Amino acid sequence: METQTIVEAAFLGLLEGITEFLPVSSTGHLLLAGHFLGFESNGKTFEVLIQLGAILAILSVYFGRLVNIARDLPTDPKARRFVTGVLIAFLPAAVIGALAHDIIKTVLFESPMLICVMLIIGGLILLWVDRVELKPRYTNVMDFPLGLCFKIGLIQCFAMIPGTSRSGATIVGALLLGTDKRSAAEFSFFLAMPTMAGAFAYDLFKNRHILTLNDASLIIIGFIAAFISGVFVVRYLLDYVSRHGFALFAWWRLVVGTLGLVALILMR
């Protein structure tokens, strides 16, 4: 492995961990950064498989709470409803993701112009949502009705278009459906676990024959970097969002999307 490639893999891993839980589209950032760096991975597996680091970041931060929920499942109806709600929210993405996997990887992932446009559109939506006065009916993820969870899961499917943002789609959807900012972001964290784990397992299975030892080494580097940066974001995002909202992330999307469009046009 070349030193430059190792550095690029570590940088992309850090970028994944930082952006995965922010409403800015981690996949969009990875694909754009990889495009401009000239970083190529077989079947675009690197960009998906390093998400395992981000998954483990959530597990490490929420380990105690997850253990408590698992312990309470046999006796606490609220815990059972919460787990059922997360699984119900995960189902739409699992079904559509499996059916549209090849289109997503071979068409949408190869469209940097589309990614930039979606970053800009998502930024405008975030600015609007951040400024509109919404009256939340739900402030605790443990109280989310199953119907609400399913609707959030449907909205999450928009994130299959790179540049949209999985966390952005779920957070905006939850807010518009009656949650407050903190519980919307927290539910997005919990929903990320089965969604990202499912994407990781399915992509690994689909591309198991084309992965090389060099690919595996780069994925491990990216995974470690994603875990380190992901832990930091998960620990501090909820408090930031509760105090300041999403305007910073909206403007970041607008800047990155616009600069990306300009660069792509100039490179033609």
Overview of this structure, please?
The chain has 268 residues and is an all-alpha fold. Helix content is 76%, strand content 0%. The model has no long low-confidence stretch (mean pLDDT 90).
Q: Main attributes?
A:
undecaprenyl-diphosphatase activity; cell wall biogenesis/degradation; 268 residues; 0% strand; UppP; mainly alpha; 13 helices
Structure in a nutshell:
This protein is mainly alpha-helical and 268 residues long.
What's the layout of helices and strands?
Elements: H1 3-19, H2 26-37, H3 45-49, H4 51-61, H5 63-72, H6 77-99, H7 101-106, H8 112-131, H9 146-156, H10 166-176, H11 181-206, H12 213-244, H13 247-267
GO molecular function, one term: undecaprenyl-diphosphatase activity
Subcellular location: Cell membrane
Family: Belongs to the UppP family.
Number of domains: 1
Largest sheet report: none
- Computed over alpha carbons, the radius of gyration is 18 Å
Strand proportion, as a percent range, falls in under 5%
Task: Specify the helix fraction band.
Answer: over 70%
User: What is the H/E order?
Assistant: HHHHHHHHHHHHH
Mean pLDDT figure: 90
Low-confidence stretches: none
Count, helices: 13
Structural class: mainly alpha
- Categorize the overall geometry: globular
Distance between the terminal alpha carbons, to the nearest Å?
A: 30 Å
Strand elements, count: 0
Enzyme class: hydrolase
Transmembrane segments: 48-70, 82-100, 112-129, 141-161, 187-205, 217-238, 250-267
Pfam families: BacA (PF02673)
EC number: 3.6.1.27
